[in-house]
Design a protein that fits this description.
- It is built from four helices and no strands.
- It has helices at residues 3-8, 15-24, 34-44, 46-56.
Amino acid sequence: MSVLLQEKIKPILSVDGQIAKLKENGVTFKYISEENAKKYLTENNYYFNLHHIGKIF
């Protein structure tokens, strides 16, 4: 794998990791609570959906 491609690959974050990353980037949870954000990310995250679909095949 080339060095340039390795630099563009981002780690897969858990829902808690995604929330932490959002906070690092200055996102405040003024209009939606962290718990509701976690629920949304859990239900609407394509990585986890693809992971479960992959288990079927």
